[in-house]
Amino acid sequence: MTNKEWFKQAKFGMFIHWGLYSLLGGEWKGKRTEYPAEWVMTYNRIPIKEYEKLAEAFNPIFFDAEEWVKLAKEAGMQYIVFTTKHQEGFSMFKSEVDAYNIVDATPFKRDVVAELAEACRKYDMKLGLYYSQELDFHEQHGGGVHYVDPWLGCDWANNWDFPNKEEKDFSICLEKKIKPQLKELLTKYGDLLLIWCDDPCEITPQQSREVYDLIKTYQPDCLVPSRVGNGIGDFHSFGDNQLPDKDWGGLGESCVTMNHTWGYKGYDNDWKTVD
Question: pTM to 2 decimals?
């Protein structure tokens, strides 16, 4: 059975959002955000050098990949999608491309993606990896648009460290970091169900195609969502917390939060009902 055939009948998976932003729990210097907590760097326009200090305190000594996987299986979930790099630009895996990662930049010194992949193989759980293929606020050329988004209430680009949009060239980040890190994910952690791309803003059709083709080069059966951009992808990823019409007949996935945030927010306890 191909991944596409399997995905059509899988129905239910676990999306795990985890990064440096988790340490802050939606707060910065006593100020709480009403928006999803994983964008805390952009809401507060935190300079890179200040935000990097979070890595020095990131030491999740009680992380247990097997516990996560067993919990997902007990809940009836068929697959896990894990955030390997969100828009903050910090990698939750050992990367030879960029030292700004959980092994080289934190006291934890462990590759959580490697441990999660091993646990998934042990318990027969399919694994997908989220990777922000355009937005990277740790990089001068990390993509994005310089305007305040009404839904998130903040800019979709690091325009406080790098205010001159004319000096940005996303192709540099694409070649220097994005493609090499995708290659690492596709060659170091075994067979993957999917690479969960996200937030295509100004990525060109050619660049979306290059990302898609790169993924298929290393793992031809690995699925790519429509969020790779420009009408490309193996299945449609609906908007955050958006459910399709009942009559929608294509292959798709709805990513849905349990409360109102993806990243951990310590004061958001407005949980959805079981139904």
Answer: 0.96
